Amino acid sequence: MELLEYTALELGGLIQKGEVTPTQAARAALDRVAAEQDRNNAFIICLDEEQVLAQANHVEKRLAAGERLSPLAGVPMALKDNICTKGVPTTCASRILGDFTPPYDATAAERLKAAGGVLLGKLNMDEFAMGSTSETSYYGPTRNPWDLDRVPGGSSGGSAAAVAAGECWYAVGSDTGGSIRQPASYCGVTGLKPTYGAVSRYGLVAYASSLDQMGPLARSAADCAAVLELMAGKDRRDGTSLDAGWDGLTAGLNGDLRGLRVGLPADCFGDGLDGEVRSAVLSAAEVLKDRGAVVETFSFPMMKYVVPAYYIIAAAEASSNLSRFDGVKYGWRAEGYEGLTDLYEATRTQGFGAEVKRRILLGTFVLSAGYYDAYYKKALQVKALIKGAYDRAFEYYDLLLTPVAPTTAPRLGDSLGDPLRMYLSDIYTVPLNLAGLPGLSMPCGFDRKGLPIGAQLIGPALGEAKVLGAAHAFQLDTDYHRQSPTGKEASVQ
Amino acid sequence: MKITEEMVDYISALARLKLPQAEKTRMTGELEQLLAYMDVLNGLNTEGVEPMSHVFPLKNVMRPDEVEPSGDRAELLANSPVTDEAAFLVPRTVE
């Protein structure tokens, strides 16, 4: 078996046993990135060989000195480019950040580094994480490794594509309305958005602070558990980070689903859902049943309100968060301005892309005098009702199972022309962010075109162990998560 | 609701954006379409529902104040587009 085919935990195990060195793993990843980057553009910044090998060598020395580090020590990984990395540029895929190089590490980046993570580079995304296709990047779109004419999803499209193409063993993305789960689904990898507050947001460039959460994308649920254990936990630099225990998540994965109550919201399987996606997700429910889960359909009539409530709240917070980009303290500044206001306006108008400006304007509108109550306050009330509906569902069910996205990956260029249609495609993922719940996307089949399909498991707040446990059990009985686009090409030839 | 170019001018000014005419025309139509869709929320009775800004019942988080070094000035200024190595430089704002 090639190194690149192992899961992160398998590779980490071989490193612990001394059968593979971190340097060998880093070299394998560097070769793969060099071969794939021109095809899929998953990275915005690739660290050079010297920078990567120096990290690998450092981990090697620490392991040789008997340091315990972590089960993922020496495993190469990459971070979405909205996660601050000390000394490594962080662009948010925007022109306006220019060559901004953070003087500090995000907490998640710092914890992974301390655990022996080897950083390969920074991953492509929709500009400021606003988009569902990774096409709004100032650095060009990422392409889906399963079909280079299709999008990888977004906004963590580079993260999903890099894992799918075997360029890294795991990646960290961010999810404000589905930005980890939807690209994981389109690219056939496993992605987890943890409970709001599980991972410190310190050093994550803010999009919508009440919804943003970082999480792993990897080849298996077990890998996601292992990465989450390293990143999660209270951080004094993020007041919303939660003081809950995530240790033992990986060790707790035992495949036992007997008596687990799984609810299928009927409203997530109706109009607008592609037939092949529907049957693949329903087949996933059968696999859970075979392992002893009790699966039931129930009514969840909030679904038609989730997208408008989400876009109002997300745009409102974005309009406020993005006011800091002004061409003064960091990043790029336009030329040819007259006076301070003109400097701001010229920099922001030329520095932000169309989708970012659309959301800033929408957010400014819903917060403006005269419209605040009708839109923003209304959306916050709807959010409370959505949260309440989930609370009631979790009185009956341990987990919910839904599709991740209504279709498989669309073609490049098919989505951006109609923003409303693109926003509507986020229907299955955005309600979890509104309610702060953990959700996982796992590969559950392929359509006739050979494109991956994802199923979403949703847990109650802090229900990561249940979500990961069910996904792990599913992956014990299926091998969708072990398929790779490179394998597909090989079998075609 | 009808969105006019004057309304887009107004919110653009609030957001410190100045859209070229073609972009403004397109954005006006798109905002109108999006806001028309948002009106679906009016179908849900929210009377008496407390607006929820934070999803978990978090209280103010207190900790002892600890003195520690802040960022290095040269390092922070290095990211600014225009500095004189001691401060951020902007056009004159006070005559």
How would you portray this structure in words?
The complex is a heterodimer of chains A (493) and B (95). Chain A has 493 residues and is α/β, with parallel strands linked by helices. Chain A is built from 16 helices and 11 strands. Chain A has one domain: Amidase signature (AS) enzymes (Alpha-Beta Complex), CATH 3.90.1300. An 11-stranded mixed sheet of chain A has the order 1-3-2-4-6-5-10-11-9-7-8, sandwiched between helices. In chain A, helix 2 (22-40) runs antiparallel to helix 3 (49-64) and helix 5 runs parallel beside helix 6 (181-187). Chain A is globular. Chain B has 95 residues and is mainly α. Helices cover 35% and strands 0% of the residues of chain B. Classes of the chains: A alpha/beta (493), B mainly alpha (95). At the A-B interface, helix 9, helix 10, helix 11, helix 12 and helix 13 of A face helix 1 and helix 2 of B.
Question: What is this entry, summarized?
Answer:
The complex is a heterodimer of chains A (493) and B (95). Chain A has 493 residues and is α/β, with parallel strands linked by helices.
Largest sheet of chain A: 11 strands, mixed
Cα radius of gyration of chain B in angstroms: 23 Å
Portion of residues within helices of chain A: 40-55%
> SS-based structural class of chain B?
mainly alpha
Tell me the name of the CATH class of chain A: Alpha Beta
Specify the CATH homologous superfamily of chain A. Answer: Amidase signature (AS) domain
* Anisotropy-based shape of chain B: flat
Mean pLDDT of chain A: 96
H-E string of chain A: HHEHEHEHEHEEHEHEHHHHEHHEEHH
Poorly predicted sequence stretches spanning 5 or more consecutive residues of chain B: none
What is the H-and-E element order of chain B?
A: HHH
Give the DSSP E fraction of chain B (strand runs of 2 or more residues): under 5%
SS summary, helix count of chain A: 16
Strand order of the largest sheet of chain A: 1-3-2-4-6-5-10-11-9-7-8
Largest β-sheet summary of chain B? none
Structural class of chain A: alpha/beta
